[in-house]
Amino acid sequence: MSEKITDTTVPSQVENTIRQLDSLSMLPCVAARFLSQLIQFQLSPPALDELIESDPALSVKIFTLSHQQGLSFPEGNSTIRQALDRLSFRTVRDAFFSVKVYQAPEQREQRVLLRKQLLLHSLAVACCAKDIAEITPGLIEPQLAYSAGLLHNIGNLALDQVMPRSFASIVEEAKSQGASICTVQQKHLGLDYTILGKRLAQKWHLPNEITLAIWLHRSNTEVISQNMPEARIAQIVQLADSMARQCGIGQSGSFDSYDLPKAVAGSLAITTEQLEQISRNLSEEVRRKSEVLGLDLSEPEQTYFDVVNIAAAQLAQESTELLLENRRLQTASSYFDFITDFLPSITSAVGAIDIAENFAVRWQKFYQTGPVCLYLVPSVKSQTLEAVLVESQSRTKTIVLKTPAQTPAIPQQASKGFVILNAHDHADWLFEQLGIDFDTTQTKLMPLLSNGKAVGAIVFQLRYPVETEKLQEKFKAVTSVAGAILDMAFASADRQRFAEQFAHLLAKPADRQIRIDTGYSLSALAEIAAGAAHELNNPLSVISGRAQLLSQTETDPEKKQILKQIQENTDELSRIIDGLMSFAQPQPPRPTEINIRQILDEATQLTARKTNIEQLDVQIDIAENSKNVFVDSAQIASAIANIFSNSLESYTDGRGPIKINAAADQSGNFVKLQISDYGCGMDRQTLQKATQPFFSAKPAGRKRGMGLAYANRIIQLNNGMLGITSEPGSGTTVTISLPRK
Prior knowledge:
By secondary structure, the chain is α+β, with helices and mostly antiparallel strands. Among the domains are: 24-300, Hypothetical protein af1432 (Orthogonal Bundle); 592-739, Heat Shock Protein 90 (2-Layer Sandwich). The protein is 58% helix and 11% strand. The protein is built from 30 helices and 13 strands. The strands form three sheets. A six-stranded antiparallel beta sheet has the order 3-2-1-6-5-4. Strand 2 (384-392) and strand 3 form a beta hairpin. Helix 13 (208-216) crosses helix 15 (232-247), helix 20 packs antiparallel against helix 23 and helix 24 crosses helix 25. Residues 1-6, 508-520 and 699-703 have low confidence and may be disordered.
């Protein structure tokens, strides 16, 4: 782009040139420091934070990225660290690679030196602004002041980047005349770096406070801040800029005479002694920041090129590894048709033997084998085994086999991991009972594994020669899916038995319901729940993992949708299990003496996060004689938060109010909490089941019904009691008694 522009078009052409700038560029030493730490796996989050917040180009990029991703921050707290805490490492890394490295093809050493001096000045202003903010508490957040100081000079950095010769001439003229760079820029460009910096800050969506500091720090900030309090950050940057120049750190581009703005210091209530202390520490702070950026490197460009070459070599190696992995996944995907044909036939109501039959029929069809037998091995010892025999696609039957007396049903070699065995060496007991002619010399046996455990085996006759190694690759993934599904079916059958026990316990007369409240039957239910959750977890994780792995290589949209549904349903089951385990096996309480107000405040905060309501309408009245209780505060706060959530759900707008009264009971041994709402209330039938696990008055699929059940269980574990009264249309009151010692 030409830098020769006519006088009448200077301002508009300069602005147009600046407007086309996507981001600032970083020095080669900064890029070298980032890449060297990245390829050596030394780039920890704290190191990454410090590197980014020390470089104007990277800081600008992170602020822009935060805006693009819709991140919002509390007013006055828009800092780099706040943004980095909410962005993934991969996102930040990709942002770094999108920032250009500073290049100066003409008069390279002088240009890089000027750029480095500008950066040192920005670092000095940043450190100084942060120190000033720290001694003026409550005025400006120190990290925000630091970023404002670091970026106050982005107008000059941008001019140096897009108009390097003109900018160098302006700096040289300011130096020779002992003038302010703003004066020379106004003379030649019709505007100065503060206006250009403001334009860039608005384009790149920098925080408003930083934009004001960039724009106003060369103005009469004392007068401006009297009418615009938010401009006080510009006062801090103005004072920091003067102190950095006084200390002679870096180069701002201005060479006019100046004095410290004492009026600004006075309006900020900063003493001369405090400013002198900041000045004494400033050189060391900037030196440390310079080391972070690699400004101390003797040959930064050569270091950068060396690091780029190393990174390229590593990338080539990783690319080769990815290519090999891609080939492996392509091989695996060739068997995906079998799995996607098999999986849709599975529903929650299908038993293990039906699943085995579907799998065996498809196995014979897909792999063009001879007869197939698939037999199941239950987790408990039994004298019989269920099996499926497929002679042809039109001739299948389920049979019952006698468990072999002298040999294990699953050969020892196959019970520990996936192997392919010659069936005639291990399954004579099976062939004797099947009653059909297998060519035993061509018959193979493979285990169906789930989480390292054999749940069955498939025996089939090959009709074509193939190497065992290729069979291993061909069949391992498919049989593992079958093993996981069958294991899930076994767990489902166990769950059915658990459910029947649940129903049996819950169906007892009213006196048994009273025993649930006392904890006897509740413990029995919890034990059953824990068993059910334990049995479901392992097969669920296997199914989810397999579906995810297969989805990564599938390109057919319909098949990807099937796998997505499998994952979504296993995730939902996992969440149900988590709730079940929280109810069944909560951590033993660790009671301490705690103020009841603290517990209620924590419960309110938990509820606010859970419901995404910032301000809950919670009215708390605590009697003087009931301040402390002896409980596990975290558990009780969680239980009360569940009760609060139920109360909010009783309102049509979901917002309350909730009224809480706390007072000691007549014995003085308990604090009684009454949590009341004025929502829809419950009828008698609903009220009787309110604390039962998995009961919900909501429509099916809307809630899991563990809230009050969990609260009741946790309160009982903490030696407390819970009771509920309610009337339809009049609201609900939950009464909790908590021990005082």
